[in-house]
Amino acid sequence: MTLALEQAKFAQNQDEVPIGAVIVQQGQVIASAHNLCESLKDPTAHAELLAIQKACAALGEMRLSDCELYVTLEPCAMCAGAISHARLAKVIYGAYDPKGGAIDHGAKVFQSPNCLHRPDVISGVDENESKQLLQSFFLAKR
Amino acid sequence: MTLALEQAKFAQNQDEVPIGAVIVQQGQVIASAHNLCESLKDPTAHAELLAIQKACAALGEMRLSDCELYVTLEPCAMCAGAISHARLAKVIYGAYDPKGGAIDHGAKVFQSPNCLHRPDVISGVDENESKQLLQSFFLAKR
How close, in Å, is residue A75 to chain B by CA atoms? Predict the structure, then answer.
């Protein structure tokens, strides 16, 4: 999660919403990314999606069944869907996101009856640090 | 939808699951794409996501508020989430997808309480042709 938070800080330095993600396979980091929506003018360029794309490219595989995703904020519906498609074994996330999250809030994608793959989920890891990064970013924007 | 079906046939010719998508702005096609998961080894390379990325790149905009998405199959949770993020005005889709769909089935992303943007949705347009393409593709795979 320390590395995911580092990615979130990289995002902040580029005036992007500070969210970072890292994918680990058997203890080794195989992909890391941060939110790039503004720079790329791409609403799909969330940290999780970019990390999944990088990890799949690195392994030459569509499935990340023996991998774990660390991300600083609760994934949205788009990213939760991508996590299922990639068959990630585990998701460890930082701050809860009642406004946009779709794991423990909203659409609760992994709990839907037709969800094809449900990863293990650990919520609220280093929650405060993730939350503070986001809060100070949006406060500075006002 | 005819153009989206054409995209789906392109996918089939590349041994990809035959799903196609087209984005239209004021009557003009600005992006079209088909599923490329196998070729790219990328589980996020769904027709809708690729079409959204292309449309945003074409316009240099993160928002597609005056655009409509035509897609041959009911979008999954990932793509429904991306549709919300892109603020698409309308989604017109072909075949219903009880196994993987997330608009009229499963997570029903646009009906979730924290969904930030709900497009108008028209379901089942040219349903049979979309369904037949998918059925014959999977039948040939067995």
Answer: 11
